[in-house]
């Protein structure tokens, strides 16, 4: 049986743009008629996605699959590490959570992980014309070379030609690219067929001599210099893009400032799946803020969102330490709407309890914001929920935030552990606003309708849900009828724009020739 062609994108460091380049190349080759699939052997990220079979993989590989026009599968990211603390991560193998491990324990199982990676890669290569592989970090982390599961070891398994990517925006492009090549073993060095310079700002004509110098010193062609872009919206691999405190999202400003909604998203330390709010940033009526302290909060936020997190208890304790619990409660008292999603939903209750150390490794109880009459319990042997869902608003709760969503249904997904129930005497007064897959109820809505929470991710990517929420907030703000003018949110257009961008700045014919890519 003929195996697929392979191409691998490695980088000189993390955040040089490997994921975005793989996404664009997946789209570009798919447009040319290739049956193309992405692959990343091991991914460490808090942004994740649920496959149709209920497996959990890195969000980046799901995005790359979507760009390629195929359904994501667990083989595209056979090992996912989701950090739970500075020293431990949940290990997800072929879509299913295995255990939480420290790095030393994880590395002891290297031979097991390598077998998983090899089998997943073989399955993809047997099913597609081309597999585009993404590396992680740098291939020359010399102290970790013996444990490599994702860079040159995978290139060897896949017999892949490698393109090495450097980030010129950080500075030191010559040192990073040439230094990486110098530190590679000779047999690995031979796998690198070309260089890509990413995130260029300025006049490309002034950089052409730099390209020639790089080619001369490395003995490798520079197949492209890709300019920095700000008008193409691709879901980020992880929340590292927010670490500088900015939203890192494009914000249209077509509405006068005084007439726009201020929506604040709390930038939790273990924030997960924040890309689900990308669609909000495209709305002309919205001004989006990512905040990590009371001082960063807008003076009068119309809506505060507590997003998902991989460590609810630790992030809840962080909210208390930062003074955000008191500030959010005060904002709610003064009229801000509050919405919690997944871990953020858990935080809105009276308490979060982990008596057996399921999430925290030690028994722990944290007081919540006490904005909803609920409590959450983490229990041993509890199965992690990972599923796609179809949800709708229960007509009986269609008021407040959900006033304009009566009868509407939405695509969503769930990734969580922990059970949330009404607390004590509130059990008989449950106000669950969402009906999932026509039968199961989820979430909670306050009596006045302006504080809500649920376990459903991806709601804002549904045009009807997003614009219904905006309409409810605008009418509360102005007391006048409002018609949302936002456009339909689609990542497909963004993938096409990205492919066009790469086609403009990368010599694709040369890339194919260097990598020996032949049509299936």
From TrEMBL:
Pathway(s) served: Cofactor biosynthesis; adenosylcobalamin biosynthesis
Keywords recorded for this protein, A-Z: Cobalamin biosynthesis, Glutamine amidotransferase
Single GO molecular function: ABC-type vitamin B12 transporter activity
Domain of life of the organism encoding this protein: Bacteria
CDD domains documented for this protein: CobQ_N (cd05389), GATase1_CobQ (cd01750)
Cell division listed as a keyword: no
PROSITE patterns: GATASE_COBBQ (PS51274)
Single Gene Ontology BP annotation: cobalamin biosynthetic process
Residue ranges of domain CobB/CobQ-like glutamine amidotransferase in the record: 262-464
Pfam families the record matches: CbiA, GATase_3
Domain CobQ/CobB/MinD/ParA nucleotide binding: residue ranges: 7-237
Keyword Signal: no
Active site as annotated: 342 (nucleophile), 457
Family from the record: Belongs to the CobB/CobQ family. CobQ subfamily.
UniProt function note: Catalyzes amidations at positions B, D, E, and G on adenosylcobyrinic A,C-diamide. NH(2) groups are provided by glutamine, and one molecule of ATP is hydrogenolyzed for each amidation.
Name of the molecule in the record: Cobyric acid synthase
Organism of derivation: Ktedonosporobacter rubrisoli
Record gene name: cobQ
């Amino acid at each position: 049986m003929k195996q697929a062609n392979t191409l691998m994108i490695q980088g000189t460091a993390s955040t040089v743009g490997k994921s975005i380049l793989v996404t664009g190349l997946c789209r570009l080759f798919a447009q040319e008629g290739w049956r193309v699939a992405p692959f990343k052997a091991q991914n460490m990220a808090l942004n994740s996605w649920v496959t149709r079979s209920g497996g959990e993989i890195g969000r980046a590989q799901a995005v790359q699959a979507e760009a390629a026009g195929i359904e994501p599968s667990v083989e595209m990211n056979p090992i996912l590490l989701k950090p739970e603390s500075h020293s431990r991560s949940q290990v997800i193998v072929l879509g299913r959570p295995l255990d939480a491990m420290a790095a030393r324990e994880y590395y002891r199982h290297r031979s097991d992980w390598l077998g998983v990676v090899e089998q997943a890669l073989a399955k993809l290569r047997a099913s597609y014309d081309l597999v585009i592989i993404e590396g992680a970090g740098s291939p020359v982390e010399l102290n970790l070379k013996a444990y490599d599961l994702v860079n040159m070891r995978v290139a060897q398994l896949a017999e892949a030609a490698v393109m090495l990517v450097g980030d010129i925006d950080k500075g030191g492009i010559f040192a990073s690219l040439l230094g990486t090549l110098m530190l590679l073993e000779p047999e690995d060095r031979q796998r690198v067929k070309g260089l890509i310079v990413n995130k260029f700002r300025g006049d490309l004509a002034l950089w052409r001599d730099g390209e020639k110098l790089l080619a001369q010193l490395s003995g490798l062609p520079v197949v492209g210099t890709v300019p920095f872009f700000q008008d193409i919206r691709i879901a980020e691999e992880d929340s590292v893009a927010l670490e500088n405190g900015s939203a890192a999202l494009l914000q249209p400003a077509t509405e006068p400032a005084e007439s726009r909604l201020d929506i604040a998203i709390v930038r939790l330390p273990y924030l997960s799946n924040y890309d689900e709010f990308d669609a909000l940033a495209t709305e002309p009526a919205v001004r989006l803020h990512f905040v990590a302290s009371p001082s960063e909060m807008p003076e009068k936020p119309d809506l505060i969102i507590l997003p998902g997190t991989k460590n609810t208890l630790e992030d809840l304790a962080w909210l208390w330490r930062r003074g955000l619990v008191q500030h959010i409660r005060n904002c709610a008292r003064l009229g801000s709407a509050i919405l919690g999603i997944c871990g953020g939903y858990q935080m809105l209750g009276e308490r979060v309890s982990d008596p057996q150390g399921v999430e925290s490794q030690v028994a722990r109880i944290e007081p919540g914001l006490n904005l909803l009459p609920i409590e959450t319990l983490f229990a041993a042997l509890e199965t992690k929920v990972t599923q796609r869902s179809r949800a709708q608003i229960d007509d009986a709760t269609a008021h407040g935030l959900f006033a304009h969503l009566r009868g509407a249904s939405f695509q969503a997904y769930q990734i969580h552990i922990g059970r949330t129930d009404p607390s004590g005497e509130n059990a008989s007064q449950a106000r669950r606003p969402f009906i999932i897959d026509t039968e199961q109820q989820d979430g909670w809505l306050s009596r006045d309708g302006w504080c809500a929470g649920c376990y459903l991710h991806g709601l804002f990517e549904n045009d009807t849900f997003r614009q219904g929420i905006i309409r409810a907030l605008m009418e509360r703000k102005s007391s006048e009828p409002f018609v949302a003018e936002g456009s339909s949110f689609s990542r497909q257009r963004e993938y096409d724009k990205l492919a066009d961008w790469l086609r403009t700045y990368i010599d694709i014919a040369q890339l194919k020739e260097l990598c020996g890519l032949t049509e299936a």
